[in-house]
Write a structure and sequence with these properties.
290 residues, mainly alpha, Arc Repressor Mutant, subunit A, Four Helix Bundle (Hemerythrin (Met), subunit A), 2 domains, two-stranded antiparallel sheet, flat, transcription regulation, coiled coil, Tscrpt_reg_HTH_GntR, WH-like_DNA-bd_sf, DNA-binding
Amino acid sequence: MFQKVNSRAGLSDGVAQALLEQISNGNLPAGAKLPSEAVLAEQFGISRAVVREAMAQLKSQGVVESRQGSGVYVSPHGLVMPLRIDPGDVGSLSAVLQLLDVRRALEAEAAEQAAIKRTARQLEKIENALAEISHEVAKGNDGVLADVAFHRTIAQAAGNPFLLNTLRFLNQYLEAAVHITRNNEAQNADFARQVHEEHQALVDAIRAGDPVSARHMAQTHLYNAGRRLKQSAQAAASLTGQTAKKDRKLAGPSSRATARPNSTGKQAIADTSRSRKRKTNSANTAGIDT
């Protein structure tokens, strides 16, 4: 029924994915009993410990459930697949930009709905959150947490918990990118000014109760966020190349053959993303600005 897992890396992930595929294609329907631990270990060509790890993953996702003295079964909601993105899949610049495309659609809807539904109290929270960004930057901080709060208040004002939770899920994978661009903004007055003006225009539209303008401002802001991210990556690549060239020159001819740049702009995002991978599941943001 199952093919043996050949890769030594991520064995339990591979087993969990194979079982998920069997569930999604109907070979293991809701309520079906899974083969025993020993049988799965033999079919996959792995140890029983790896099978237990895979089962633990599926149980944590609510896909399967244990029944005392009976075995493991596909849960009644097993076919409702949990939304999941492998952090390793978003380590490149192109992947982050694709996530920003998705975020742009969601944030635009949130802004439009906020312009329609926001209360006076919610508008006050949005305005206070915007002021807090400037306050944090003035203190020398990067303002990331203040940005998170700003976008979260807009999503909350939209009055749709599913939209809010989807944004929270998505934005946890953009943490690396926002820190890169925030650092770049700290050194680029034009970037910082642009972000503030975009935020202000968005708030103005929500205050005016203009859903069309609010949607447009949110789309423009996220489009420009992608542009700034690309510029940040290009600047990082250029700086790294200049540093490597200088190092080779200082080291002399004998060392040139082995000199290597530390990273490119794309790798900078990937490196930062990997360093934050352990924190992904605990991320609790509903909006991260770039």
